[in-house]
Amino acid sequence: MQNEHLLIISTFTAYFALHSLLASLWLKQRVARCCPCLLPYYRLGYNLLAVVLAVPLLYLLWRYPGEPLWQWQGFSGYLADGLGLLALITLLYSLRLYDMGEFLGLRQAHGKVHQIRDMEHFQISPLHRYVRHPWYFLILVIIWSRDVASNQLLIYLLVTLYLVIGSRLEERKLIAYHGEVYREYRRRVAGLIPLPWKTLSQPQADALLSRYRQQ
Q1: Is 196 exposed, middle or buried (0-12, 13-18, 19+ CB in 10 A)?
Q2: Pick from 61, 42, 131, 34: which is nearest to 91 by CA?
Q3: What pLDDT does residue 191 have?
Q4: How many other β-carbons are positioned within 10 Å of the β-carbon of residue 54?
């Protein structure tokens, strides 16, 4: 059991560290200086590598579930399944709110785009009015609404920790990209867990976007 824990912790930590490093502005700036011809394909390669390297993680999750700890049963089981399904549907729906060509890196590769920063401008989708990182929140709902075994608990804790740390690293880039407007948005909207007192109405979101366009 101890060897399984070490394997899980080391593998997931290595994946998260590499994922964060590849997503950093620091590395992209160095690629731009050393191999600028690679920049148009950086985002696409980053996403492909993330998917390929996630396969061993999924294998570990399947191969070493560990001893059962708790199961959602009765009413709580229906509630957990409903929340997980709702989160999954919302996650799939939210894909319409993003420029997926830019997100996947297809548009950069096709257009031979050499800029370091993301192409997509600051936007506030309906979900972003309630939480700054809606995908991260929905992933948390999906994983914590499942039955949990001992090794799965370890993995879910690692994923949760990474989402907390990753969201903060991501926001450093967003502040670098979007400046004071994003700082204001961050002050007014909750980060990972929606809070009723930290949301934006549609007029407030529109006013913030108007400020962004004028800066």
Answers
A1: exposed
A2: 131
A3: 92
A4: 12
Cβ atoms of residues 20 and 166 within 8 Å: yes
- Give the span between the Cα atoms of 159 and 154, in whole angstroms: 9
CA neighbours closer than 13 Å in the CB half-sphere of residue 193: 4
CA–CA distance from 3 to each of 13, 53, 160 (Å)? 15, 21, 22
Rounded CA separation 64/7 (Å): 10
**Threshold 0.90, pTM exceeds:** no
CB atoms within 10 A of CB 106: 14
| Cβ–Cβ under 8 Å, residues 22 and 46 | yes
Q: What values do phi and psi take at 71, rounded to 5?
A: -130, 140
- Residues with pLDDT less than 70, the chain: 1, 116-120
Which tens digits make up the pLDDT trace of 41-57?
888 899 999 999 999 99
The separation between the first and the last C-alpha atoms of the chain, rounded to the nearest angstrom, is: 56
What was the pLDDT predicted at 120? 62
Residue 152 tokens read as 């799965």
